[in-house]
Amino acid sequence: MKREHLLILAIVAALVAWPLLMGNYAVAQANRAMIYALAALSFSLLAGRLGWFSLCQTTFAGISGYTVAILGVRYGLPFPLVVLLALLLTTFSAVIFGLLTVRSRKVSFLMLTLALGQMVWALSFQWVDVTGGYNGIAGVRMPVYGGVDLNDTRIFYVMVTTVTVAIFLAMWRLYRSPFGLLLLGIQENEQRMRALGHPVALARFSAFVLAGAIAGVAGVFLVYDMGIMSPSPLGLGHAVWVLTAAVLGGYRSLLGPAIGVAILITLETLVAQYTDRHMMVIGLVLLLSILLMPRGLAEVLEQRFKRKSKPQASVTTTTRGE
Amino acid sequence: MNTLYFLTLNGLTMAALLFIMASGLTLAFGLMRVVNLAHGAFYLLGGYVGVQVINDTGSLTLGLLAGGCIALVGGLLMERFLLQRVRGLDLSEALMTIAVGLIIADALLVVYGGQPVSLPLSRELRAPVDLGVMMYPYFRVLIMVFALLLGILLWLVMTYTRLGAAIRAGVDDRETAMSQGINVPLLFGGVFAVASFLAGIAGVIGTSYMSLTQGLDVRVLMLSLVVIIIGGMGSLKGAAVGALITGMVSSFATGYLPQFALFFLFLPMTLILVFRPQGLFGRAA
């Protein structure tokens, strides 16, 4: 318990120190990393708690981003309203996707989310009147309030950090709340949870909508960070990127996805000097993660730390038998 | 009236292609519970290699065989060296196929570049033939005939041969089938090889309809998934019916309401998911 509080303090201290010590480029990288950490958290909430591997979490981020771009740039609505509507619309799409997928399990869930996500992706470049097609919608900027330009890298950093830390802390509480434990229970033995009188389908559905909303927050930041919304963040490549980060870091732990994103971004920056085949690099990282450490880096580190290893079942390490 | 025939024929061609694409995927899923998400990449691999062989030798048959075989080799390598290590963990298997798909698709981009590639067909194959109601390109007629023959062949093998009986037994109850002396792992390898071969062949044939480009692997994967979700994962009959529905809907939507073509493409899948989540011919989990 105490160690966890120390860890949280250390992370917050590092996040405060980062913009004070580092240059603009490093701060911008940190912004991007935190946005993707939110997306990876959204993925891990479903993967780690429910064993549901989703390939449409980046789609929710994309829906949110497009809403911001369309309402903000095309219709010039005020910033707070734009953000609110984007989050509402994303949550609404998560409700619809949730209704369609709540009955599916494991691999069929993966396939369904893949198909649904790619459907939105296809729509995003075919519905040119609304989305601007391949060119997307440019000029998405935050407002200037009282002389403070919210687009400034460091001010943007403060906003992203605050929201990201708040969401991670909320998830920290949620993971150990009765609801979080119920989700784990459902993953381990659905029949038993049902027999105990828990609303299994409702819990699953709520988790899905919550994860969608978190991805929506990531999408809002992502579109303001990029300044342009195009179909590419909705593509399969991005979905797999987030999945790889979560698997690499460890989707069962809270910090795992954030660690995975940090490593992946660092790795991509390093590799970019030698080759532009970054999809191949992502593919290799995913392959090696599954082969070498299916529970992710976070749990490897944790066990090294604790020494007394409590064997825990992971979705990808439990056998197929029901 | 002519438009109606034309759209119907286009829909049938599309359905035939979709069936060739999806049959491999549904076959592997039905027996091994492995969703091969590298399916689209194998399609692309078969397509590129097949077209290159056709360009070099001028023979369509050789191209088809080469495309099928290269995908078969890729599938077998993936099955032996990667999937076997995580056998039984279906999510790990699925994630692994995603990784392999990414690597293959990116490697193909390096080798063949980003320019669209289309299938070089001889004039006789491209020429229209009289179908009684209207003229229609000969090669498209061949695609439909091929899909029909493939469907009948697969159905005959699955229903009437010992091999088919063994496969069905492996699907129904793996342990019992093994205790009866059926070599299920060998069967799995074989089915996976056939499934990959079909993906490669589909890549060569499909290139006559849509040219090979970057990102086509994902589109093919998505279309195949839609087909088998409608039909029921693992069911051959389902793949045929799913392909027919998707092909027809897609063709008529493109003809009459082009802006909403994609919406209509996914409409049947969504309806199926709401009212019959296991698909038309799938069994409830």
UniProtKB/TrEMBL annotation, chain A:
This protein's record includes keyword Transmembrane helix: yes
Primary location class: membrane
GO cellular component: plasma membrane
Keyword GTP-binding belongs to the record: no
GO molecular function: branched-chain amino acid transmembrane transporter activity
This protein's UniProt keywords: Cell membrane, Membrane, Transmembrane, Transmembrane helix
Residue stretches spanning the membrane: 33-52, 59-77, 83-102, 109-128, 155-175, 201-224, 230-248, 255-274, 280-298
Pfam families attached to this UniProt entry: BPD_transp_2
Membrane topology label: Multi-pass membrane protein
Domain of life: Bacteria
Subcellular location: Cell inner membrane
Protein name (record): Branched-chain amino acid transport system permease protein
Taxonomic path: Bacteria, Pseudomonadati, Pseudomonadota, Gammaproteobacteria, Oceanospirillales
Automatic annotation (TrEMBL), chain B:
Top-rank lineage group of the source organism: Bacteria
GO molecular function: transmembrane transporter activity
Xref: Pfam families: BPD_transp_2 (PF02653)
Keywords in alphabetical order: Amino-acid transport, Cell membrane, Membrane, Transmembrane, Transmembrane helix, Transport
Annotated compartments: Cell inner membrane
Transmembrane segments: 6-27, 34-54, 60-82, 94-115, 135-158, 184-209, 221-244, 256-275
InterPro entries to which the protein is assigned, alphabetical: ABC_transp_permease, BCAA_transport_permease
Similarity annotation: Belongs to the binding-protein-dependent transport system permease family. LivHM subfamily.
Name listed for the protein in its UniProt record: Branched-chain amino acid transport system permease protein
Provenance organism: Vreelandella arcis
